[in-house]
Design goal:
Blueprint (H helix, E strand, L loop, with lengths): L7 E4 L5 H13 L5 E4 L10 H4 L7 E3 L5 E2 L2 H12 L9 H30 L7 H20 L9 H16 L9 H13 L1 H5 L6
Parallel strand pairs: 1-2
Antiparallel strand pairs: 1-3, 3-4
The structure holds glutathione.
Glutathione binds next to helix 1, helix 3 and helix 4.
């Protein structure tokens, strides 16, 4: 058995939107028996997460010999390779780079939403910057506008739909901003994707 053949440990929590991407991929790829989830605490300076990923970010996948892999996109690509899957991420050519670019756009929604959430988590109310929050909100609004104009195929589970669904799920869960009223196509898309892909529902964060 090589390190790359597992078993694997996934350092994440059930509330992490980036961890959710990986947990959906594990489910879809049928690798649940090979991936053991081990919660991480990104605020705990003694958590081994910080030696596994010096950035202290989750998700982080540990191979059988302890080799760490991050970030979520890298982990999903690795697991797709383990499963011999070529559907989650197009293997080559322009479709691959277009899918990765769209996934990066969707990840950017989550990144900006997290920064908005962290602003309230790490700063007292009177120290929070409305300008910084508006800067992040602008990123989310522009990215949502792109997906609203042309949503992905909701009947297709791939790196784009997984990433977008996790971004929207995080906006719904933490509510750094209201996105639903101005994005009816995306609301419909998320409903359709959730109906198509049961792994999305199975990986939902517990109620806030
Ligand atoms: N690009 C990374 C982002 C990971 C990320 O930002 N994770 C958050 C939790 S959802 C985190 O670990 N935050 C703690 C921190 O930034 O210190 C990925 O795709 O995995």
């Amino acid at each position: 058995m090589t390190a790359a053949s597992g078993p694997y440990i996934l350092r994440s929590t059930v509330t992490s939107p980036f961890g959710r991407k990986v947990r959906i991929a594990v489910d879809v790829l049928g690798l649940g028996a090979q991936v053991m989830e081990m919660p991480a605490d990104t605020l705990d300076e003694t958590d081994t997460l910080r030696t596994q990923n010096p950035l202290g970010k989750m998700p982080c996948l540990l191979l059988a010999d302890g080799t760490p892999l991050y970030d979520s996109g890298v982990i999903i690509e690795f697991l797709a390779g383990v499963a011999g899957d070529e559907h989650l991420i197009p293997p080559r050519g322009l479709p691959r780079f277009q899918a990765l670019t769209q996934a990066t756009l969707a990840d950017g929604i989550t990144d900006a939403a997290l920064l908005m959430v962290y602003e309230s988590r790490f700063r007292d109310t009177d120290k929070q910057s409305p300008r910084w929050l508006a800067h992040q909100r602008g990123k989310i609004e522009r990215a949502l506008a792109v997906f609203e104009a042309e949503p992905p195929d909701p009947a297709r589970t791939d790196i784009v739909s997984i990433t977008l669904a996790c971004a929207l799920g995080y906006l719904d869960w933490r509510q750094p901003m209201e996105w639903r009223p101005a994005h009816p196509e995306l609301v419909a898309w998320l409903d359709a994707f959730a109906a198509h892909e049961p792994a999305f529902g199975r990986t939902a964060a517990p109620s806030a």
